[in-house]
Amino acid sequence: MPRGVLGFASVAAVLVAWEAVTRAGWLPPLFLPPLSDVLTELGRLVASGELARSLALSLQRIALGWLLGSVAGFAVGLLVGLSPVAEGLLDPLIALTYPIPKIAILPLLILWLGIGEPSKVAVIAIGCFFPVAVNTAAGVRRVDPVLTRAARSLGARPWQVLTKVTIMAALPMVFAGLRLAAGMALLLVVSAEMIAAQAGIGFLVLQGGALMLVSRLMAGLVVLSLLGIASTWLLQAVERRVVRGQS
């Protein structure tokens, strides 16, 4: 059976069980509202335009933070993977700062950049930087030296060896880092919007919890889940297209 069919079947089974358990009264609606109520609330948010406004703000923050963090992470990871000197200098710094919860530095970023958009984008960019940098460096280190030597022996210039051999061979690891960064961006935008925003999907979820509007809260979580699936599928499609184009 194809993986896509299995994935759809597993998600459908969870959704049916959710509706059945809540409709049977095994869980109070305050703890977990029925799926149909969540979908009804989602429809209200769409009809009122509130979801579109919140989603547009969150996606803008996610896209900008993910792009900035991924570009910086790719550049640093490439440098670390290629240069033993850079590896010796930067690897300890990455290991030192990677475990710090990124949302914990949001108050510091607000102090530096203000409570507006720059601090939210910065915390997302910092969170996205690390998985891309670590995966890119690992991918570059795993490139078979035989490939690079063969390219040089055939007359390839250093820039051609880098772009046509090293980076292409490291692409699977790079895209793995990009997918991890996309998930990190979703986590951080929600946290940032709960702490220092008056709009966005994170604020929508926080508002639902504060007002005990559990259906609204769950609707926000459903939207976040769909964003996560969409980002994964999009990056996988881009990866297949790029890798196929180079094969």
Q: How do the helices and strands line up, and which of them pair or pack?
A:
Layout (H helix, E strand, L loop, with lengths): L2 H21 L11 H14 L1 H33 L1 H14 L8 H8 L3 H25 L3 H9 L4 H39 L4 H10 L3 H33 L1
Helix pairs in contact: 2-10, 3-4, 3-6, 3-8, 3-9, 5-6, 6-8, 7-8, 8-9, 8-10, 9-10
Subcellular location: Cell membrane
InterPro entries: MetI-like, MetI-like_sf
Family: Belongs to the binding-protein-dependent transport system permease family.
Explain how this protein is built.
- Helix 3 crosses helix 4 (84-97), helix 3 packs parallel to helix 6 (117-141) and helix 8 packs antiparallel against helix 10.
- It is built from 10 helices and no strands.
- The longest helix is centred in the last third of the chain and has 39 residues, at 158-196.
- It is mostly helical.
- Helices cover 83% and strands 0% of the residues.
Concise account of the structure shown:
This protein is mainly alpha-helical and 247 residues long. The chain has ten helices and no strands.
Tell me the number of helical segments per DSSP (H or I, 4 or more residues long).
10
How far apart are the termini?
A: 28 Å
- For the CA atoms, what is the radius of gyration? 22 Å
Oligomeric category:
single chain
Q: How many domains is the backbone divided into?
A: 1
Largest sheet descriptor: none
CATH superfamily: MetI-like
Name the CATH architecture. Orthogonal Bundle
The run of helices and strands is: HHHHHHHHHH
CATH topology label: MetI-like fold
Average pLDDT rating? 89
- The outline comes out as globular
Low-confidence stretches: none
Q: Give the CATH class.
A: Mainly Alpha
State the total count of DSSP E strands: 0
